[in-house]
Amino acid sequence: MGSASHAFFIARSSLWRVNLASLEKRLLKDENDMKILVRNLARNTTEEELHRLFSAHGTLQSCNLVLDKETGESKGFAFVEMPKVGEVKVAIKALNGMDLDGNKIRVKKAEDKAEK
Question: Where is the RRM domain (predicted)?
Answer without folding.
Answer: 34-112
